[in-house]
C-alpha cells in the first residue's frame, strides 16, 4: 500500500511484541527463571512505535520502564504470557523476543516450602510450558508476519533454521548468547528467512531494533 508523504510507515498497523523472561513459581517466594533483561524486546517495541505502529508489549518481569507510546501487559508466567498474547490479537505482525521458561515446576506450593528435618533436598518435578511462538504461528488469527528469536550458544544459524521450520514462523532472529548478549547492551544477530541468512554486525540493541522495525515496515508495506 502506498504511504503518503509525512505518514509513518507503520501507521495503522498493530504489532505484538513479547519481551523479558518468565518467572515460574515453585512456592510463594521462589521461582524458576533465566537471565533475560528484556532490553532487546523492549527496544523493538519502542522502535516499532517510533515508526507509527500501535504496539502491544507483553512483558515478563523486567527492571525496565514501560516504553513510551506502547501498551504494556505485565505478566509473570509463560501461561500468562500466552493468554495475554492471544488476547492481543488480531495483529499485523508479531515479534517473540521473550525468553520463555521452557519448563515450570509441576506444582507450585501454596505455602513456603520448609526444609525437612533430615535436611534432604526436595525433588523438583518439571513440566513443559506452552510454546507461545509455535501456538501463535498456527493460530486461526495468525499475524501476517511472525518473527521468532533463537537464543543459541553454538551452531547459531543451524539451530535457527531448524527452529524456523519447527515453529512455523516467517523469520528467526538468531541471537548469539555465548558472550554477554543476555543483559548486555549489544547484540550479534543473524536474520534467517526462507530467502537465506543475513549476518548483521555486532550492534547496540537499539540499532538491532530499529533495523528490524524497518524490515517489518517493508514486509507489511
Ligand atoms: N518461545 C515461546 N514459548 C516458549 C519457548 C520459546 O514463544 N515456551 C519463543 C521465544 O520467544 C523465541 C523462540 O520461541 O522467539 C525460540 O526460543 P528458544 O528458547 O531459542 O527455542 P526453544 O524452541 O525453546 O528451543 P531451545 O531452548 O531448546 O533452544
Ligand atoms: Ca527455550
Automatic annotation (TrEMBL):
Stretches assigned to the DNA/pantothenate metabolism flavoprotein C-terminal domain: 10-218
Function: Catalyzes two sequential steps in the biosynthesis of coenzyme A. In the first step cysteine is conjugated to 4'-phosphopantothenate to form 4-phosphopantothenoylcysteine. In the second step the latter compound is decarboxylated to form 4'-phosphopantotheine.
Family stated for the protein in its record: In the C-terminal section; belongs to the PPC synthetase family. In the N-terminal section; belongs to the HFCD (homo-oligomeric flavin containing Cys decarboxylase) superfamily.
Parent-protein start and end of this portion: 261 to 481 of 481
Name the UniProt record assigns to this protein: Coenzyme A biosynthesis bifunctional protein CoaBC
Keyword annotations of the record: Decarboxylase, Flavoprotein, FMN, Ligase, Lyase, Magnesium, Metal-binding, Multifunctional enzyme
Superkingdom per UniProt: Bacteria
Region (Phosphopantothenate--cysteine ligase): 15-221
Species name: Pararoseomonas baculiformis
Signal peptide stretch: none
Keyword Mitochondrion: no
Residues that coordinate or bind CTP: 102, 112, 130-133, 149, 163, 167
Gene: coaBC
Amino acid at each position: 500500500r502506498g504511504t503518503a508523504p509525512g505518514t509513518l510507515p507503520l501507521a495503522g498497523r498493530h504489532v505484538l511484541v513479547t519481551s523479558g523472561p518468565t518467572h515460574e513459581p515453585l512456592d510463594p517466594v521462589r521461582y524458576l527463571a533465566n537471565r533475560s533483561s528484556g532490553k532487546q524486546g523492549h527496544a523493538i517495541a519502542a522502535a516499532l512505535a517510533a515508526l507509527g505502529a500501535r504496539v502491544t508489549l507483553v512483558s515478563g518481569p523486567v527492571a525496565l520502564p514501560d516504553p513510551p507510546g506502547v501498551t504494556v501487559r505485565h505478566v509473570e508466567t509463560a501461561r500468562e504470557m500466552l493468554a495475554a498474547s492471544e488476547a492481543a490479537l488480531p495483529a499485523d505482525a508479531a515479534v517473540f523476543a521473550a525468553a520463555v521458561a521452557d519448563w515450570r515446576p509441576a506444582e507450585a506450593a501454596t505455602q513456603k516450602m520448609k526444609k525437612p528435618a533430615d535436611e534432604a533436598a526436595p525433588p523438583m518435578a518439571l513440566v513443559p510450558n506452552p510454546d507461545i511462538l509455535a501456538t501463535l504461528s498456527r493460530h486461526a488469527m495468525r499475524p501476517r508476519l511472525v518473527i521468532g528469536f533463537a537464543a543459541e550458544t553454538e551452531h547459531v544459524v543451524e539451530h535457527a533454521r531448524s527452529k524456523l521450520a519447527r515453529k512455523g514462523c516467517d523469520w528467526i532472529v538468531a541471537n548469539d548468547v555465548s558472550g554477554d548478549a543476555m543483559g548486555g547492551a549489544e547484540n550479534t544477530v543473524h536474520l534467517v528467512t526462507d530467502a537465506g541468512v543475513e549476518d548483521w554486525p555486532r550492534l547496540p540493541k537499539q540499532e538491532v531494533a530499529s533495523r528490524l522495525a524497518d524490515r517489518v515496515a517493508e514486509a507489511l508495506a
